[in-house]
Amino acid sequence: MQPASPVYSQCMCTVTRAYLILRVKQCTSGLLPAVTPRRSSEHLPGSLDSRVWPPVGAGRRAEVDGSDEVESGPAPSAVGSPESPGFWLPDSQENRATRTSSAVLRGPVCLQVSPCPLACAAEPIAASMASTFSRVLSSRRSAGFLAIVGAGTVATGYLLSRDKVSAESERRRRLYPASAEYPDLRKHNNCMASNLTPSIYAKLCDKSTPNGWTLDQCIQTGVDNPGHPFIKTVGMVAGDEETYEVFAAIFDPVIQERHNGYNPQTMKHPTDLDASKLKSGYFDERYVLSSRVRTGRSIRGLSLPPACTRAERREVEKVTVDALNGLTGDLAGRYYRLSDMTDAEQQRLIDDHFLFDKPVSPLLLSAGMARDWPDARGIWHNNEKTFLIWINEEDHTRVISMEKGGNMKRVFERFCRGLKEVERLIQEKGWEFMWNERMGYILTCPSNLGTGLRAGVHVKLPMLSKDPRFPKILENLRLQKRGTGGVDTAAVGSTFDISNLDRLGKSEVELVQVVVDGVNYLIDCERRLEKGQDIRIPSPISQFKH
């Protein structure tokens, strides 16, 4: 056997030493710098943080893209020093390149670092080793070795950017071709099944978001639930904010179909929470029993409910409750954790339409909404129970303003004021909501993108509901009806939950105005039928301006 060449021996010696020092660093996790991302209040909307988890003191090793190892090397472009409580790591092309297929910190992220004696002592050795390794690999004799090392360490990936939202897509290796994995959707009636072609599936099936969320996980709920022949559901969910960018080839057409032609590639979504712009806003309380406005909000940097870990779900709860404790005046209240309630307390709140129940719908169960139930889930409400926040149901948060009677204007004013205050308090804690100018506020289900808003009333329509023109009237007014128990429930005593059909392409003020005008039209039809007079189907209203 030929003895190993000096170059080869030197390479292997250097690599071995580097590996041993790396393992020493990893095994002495108590001495390593503790790294946790904190959102900056100066952060621009649209930028994202990848997950570096858990926060300091969480008591477990970090999970980064499915690995338990955290990149904690020095940042040459950082401002400040590791000895300070935190320093900034700007988002440069150089920094991104070194983090491909690993933890990617996009946008200004404040890193809280504790000094590591062992790591500091190892730096001169590492620098010397790097220099030696560089000299060895630069020689012609080591070209073959360099090729082997390079081939073994290349990770495929690319950066997508749209609306200042960056998302890194990673390609996974499959044992079977995409054609063998394509789901059988021949009997399905949902938006996903209508738009997912074999070519789109082949293009996306090997990709994943930085958090590891895949196309198959997005569509599983739609594959498991073919849907009703006359009720077309969405059929897919997002696992994180990057989902909508990495899998845009399927999400964009689904969004366009679900939201009446809204094109997220070319259109911009308006946001308007100025309640003073609402005209009228009062209903005849002989017909309207209650009024409410709700929306959802997602905290940037944390996975959405279908994909979140237990630690992330608990972080959502902590961040939200800490912020809500800062509310004052008529918004002041307290938080009630589901795991601390008795069954009787939970049922009473559910019966009063204040609290959500454990998901039983196959659509939600297939999407992973009920995992670890009821861990880190609960309800926060003010003292009057007119302003409520659900935590970790279908979205990170559901914000609700409600009261008995027909004063929608007061309900909407409280909704706007409370929502603005909650967002301000969240930002003071160093976090922010997911938002971009194309899709508005980002939520789990594509059906709730944009405003995420549903303004609804419980209204008695005993005569109109029996008229065969009722469905067409609702369609032209861009309204939808549900039972008083919510989605998939029947009406009780001819009382319906009537709300806006659209979420995306119109502002909050515009959508509530649609409900105010539309419900008043329904009440007028009911009055006319009571008097034996005829009614007419109104002309269709436009959803948005193209």
TrEMBL record:
GO terms for cellular component: mitochondrial inner membrane. It is found in: Mitochondrion inner membrane. ATP binds at residues 290-294, 353, 398, 454-458, 482-487. One of its GO terms (biological process) is phosphocreatine biosynthetic process. This is Creatine kinase U-type, mitochondrial. PANTHER family: ARGININE OR CREATINE KINASE, CREATINE KINASE U-TYPE, MITOCHONDRIAL. Keywords: ATP-binding, Kinase, Membrane, Mitochondrion, Mitochondrion inner membrane, Nucleotide-binding, Transferase, Transit peptide. Residues 174-260 form the Phosphagen kinase N-terminal domain. Belongs to the ATP:guanido phosphotransferase family. It is an enzyme of class 2 (transferase). Its EC number is 2.7.3.2. One of its GO terms (molecular function) is creatine kinase activity.
